[in-house]
Amino acid sequence: MKTDLKQLSKQQLSLFMETLGQRPYRTNQIINWIYRKQAVSFDDMSDLPGGLRDELARTASLSNLRLARKRTSKDGTLKFLFTLNDGESIESVLIPNRKGGDSSTLCISSQVGCAMRCSFCMTGRMGLKRNLKAFEIIDQVIAAERFLSHNPLISRPLAPAAVKDTHHTSQKSGITNIVFMGMGEPLNNFNEVSDALSRLIDCMGFSRRRITVSTSGIVPGIQKLASNTLRVNLAVSLNATTDETRSSIMPVNKKYPLKKLIKACRDFPLSPNRRITFEYVMIKGINDSVHDAHRLVSLLRGIKSKINLIPFNSLHDDTPLRPPAEGTVLAFQDVLRKCGLTAIIRKSMGADISAACGQLKASCQL
Fold first, then answer.
1. Average pLDDT of 24-31?
2. 91 catalytic, yes or no?
């Protein structure tokens, strides 16, 4: 059976190349082709000797996600439906800079489906089918980059910031920021997500300051991420200020209630100028009152934070949930700001193609 090089860590790839009698610099060449030049086959690797390419073709393979469907929003957001080798499917979303700059953010998935069952999210209604492997997580970035490189009419965003590492230089990329906010709960797939983070930083050249892992509140996962040397950004999907309300819309709160979650956030190490992002999906009549806003101020007191206020996005079904009125959202934000908190009303992108927060629900029905 051939060895899929994308399934190997950098160290494993180095050992594999040793078995072929190759010197260490060949490993770096292959990493460059896989992660920076988005090679589809070994024939693409033009700076490798022909004999080595033939040997790799006999003994190894390069898996690639298949782009089954692409949808474009009126605001420029792109949603990709990818099929995996076992026939399952996932979605990723490329979000352009709202202010019209050249930067863009890729929202990627960490699981097929999700077990969290949050009431405001379509992905949770799928249930959890399986975790993604690190190479399947990374391949979403590679596939999106490949799409951009083959579609020159789409504006090319800036390259990610150079990483201070003597082993590699920064990749020229069309994607500047990576957020683990797609399908699934990243911290319930911690080992594979951690491996993917290492590859994003070490192999693809992304700055850890431009990578964010979002969680619904898996306290042990937050603690493990805190001890991880990768030091990426943390976002917490909070969405309520009392255990009763949060448990009603986020079942995870029954296992990890607010007291435990907020403590884990207080203990999370933050370097200067870094903050935890708290995502707050605002739902009419449930968590949008001025009293909720004041409780939120009390909950987050002493935590270096930024709050993203997200009016609930329609799930296009019979759910009774509704977004609050604009005036309600502004009043909520006003309380937070007057109490010294940074609070931003986040305008959802891609809602017309079901690519906004909470709307991802992969289907191969084209």
1. 96
2. yes
